[in-house]
Amino acid sequence: MITLHDSGVFLVNGVPCADAPLSRQEGRRNTMAWNILQAHSVSGDPEQLQIRFDALVSHDITYVGIIQQARASGMKSFPVPYALTNCHNSLCAVGGTINEDDHVFGLSAAKKYGGIYVPANQSVIHSYAREQLSSCGGMILGSDSHTRYGALGTMAVGEGGPELAKQLLKNTWDVPYPKVVLVYLKGTPRRGIGPHDIAIALVKATFASGFVNNCVLEFAGPGIASLPIDFRNGIDVMTTETTCLSSIWETDEVTEEFYRTHCRPEAFRPLHPGPCAWYDKYIEVDLDQAESMIALPFHPSNAWTIHEFLENAPEILAQVEADAQARFPKAHVKLMDKIHDGGVWADQGVIAGCAGGLFDNITEAADILRGGSCGNGYFSLDVYPTSVPVSLELTRIGATTDLLECGAVIKPSFCGPCFGAGDVPANNGLSLRHTTRNFPNREGSKPAEGQFAGVCLMDARSIAATARAGGRITAATDVDYTPVSHPYHFDAGVYERRVYNGFGRPDPSVELILGPNITDWPQMPPMSRHLLVQLAAVLHDSVTTTDELIPSGETSSYRSNPLRLAEFTLSRREPAYVGRTKDAAALEAQRRAGEAPEALKAVLDRVGDGQALLEQTQFGSCVFANRPGDGSAREQAASCQKVLGGLANICYEFATKRYRSNCINWGMMPFTLDEGTPFPYEPGDCVFVPDVREAILSGKEDFPAQVIRKDGTVEPLMLHVRGLTEDERQILLDGCLMNYYANRA
Question: Which pTM value belongs to this model?
Fold first, then answer.
């Protein structure tokens, strides 16, 4: 179904070709990506972009910290439309008043600075952005990794909060011009195939090899015409899981109808590659050949066709079980008992969020379930429409009735099932979800406490087919049903009556409402001459996700209190981390107070005059991981390390640009190693980087270092920090982005 071409390709009049009359350099200027990026860049250098976005979006795990950073740096009003949605911690079930305190803060900030406030359960972040902020040829920056609106002609990027703070201060998002990859769609999906089937197959084909890492995916080809707009959006939002940078699609009359339906016809314009466009790589997707897919724990790329999975379930589930047991030794993982009575049985189905809760997904699920039953056994089905307008239309056409009659539960718009807040299965439960991720802990269990549950990703259609079978995993292509096409009617009055839209009307007299859990960031000192870091966590997993660095779920309730949130850092992956880094921070506090901690002096004695070095050497903790940062854009994955005294990450490669940017914006050195360099070191070993400040000032990219092991032996280690911009170098020297702005106020 999917073929990868690692060599470049021309698209000539809509047809992929090896040769063309233009040069590659000329051809790359004919991509949609080139034209949109250059139109938004103010750098004057087409190879080094400095982007100003048309709109910003954040949810209630991230917007408090972003606004606190920006106002501490001198922000007086929001310069572009900025939507603050309340779709992540909407349950308000943990921590007393603190979740709703953040929502009240958000409304007061929207009034004070001229923002858009979307109350809890009105819409998930990406649904609101699609409905109200997208535009053909526009660009949107969001503090959520699934900020993807390419199918609507909008290039969108998910980044950590500091990058949004930069935009609020009228600064830029800086990035080298990326590679652009053609995704050429042809054919038509058959009945029972949904957007998640295509998306999971695409992630499987590209993720492990990093085929499109930090690239822009440009979707073109005749297959687009066969896809309704919800189908396109459902594929597009999952491009995040390929680790690409952004996405953009050709637009057509289907796109135009979306904007007309949502009362914004002026936001549409045709977008197509030029007559001869050059792409760095090429992915061919044959929609005719698509199969119903399932992604097994613990990543969307761990994927199989449902038929392959069912035929080989004992071997596949045994491997997942072994993987889970290795990750979570305190849990007693049992998945093999899902195989019985001639099938494989799940315990739960969930259709939710920016990927699953779309109108077409839910109506077709209702078509499959109409007249059937989810049964009265262990299996349950929960459905979360992505916005109130979608929920209202589902009610008006009767789809909600059909689902309720079969035993499904309809819930409000909420992102919880996608990040582990809500719908937590029972111990050893297996949940099937049309959501974006199935990373460890994304289902809300606590394996470190002996709990375990697993999530498989499936399309809403196959989840409905499974629900009709009482939980027996079933491909929708194996079910006889008739899909009914329903034209979508958007009720704009829902948002007009409930959403506060103050863009362009800031009111400086409004006082921010600060609940007791909303606290300021602790002071962060500038970088010293030398750097000494102690390894507080050493992770040799192939990839370390941001959900492992700072778990989601109920921990996110403390998002506005940096010190309390930091207590959860790596808690479900390396529970000893917090204690280790606090011990290191205590020694640094003594050093800064003018004392001479003997433990630090003894380490520095191994590389020089310990007493002399002590005065000029900043000490803190460090995380080593092979490839950290896949997953969520939440800046807390980095800021929590910094709050606890973290000063560096060491890795072979950062999984995503956004996590590396988060590390830099919080003043942590983003060190990398050459591939193949051994790293046999353990927590407690230290890494000394001499003259690090001068090296950054002078633009050096190689940092000769020394590892001082716990037994006193010293070994050389070459570290690198490549590709820093001038601003990024200064942010690191100042200690963090907030210091950078404060020093220039």
Answer: 0.89
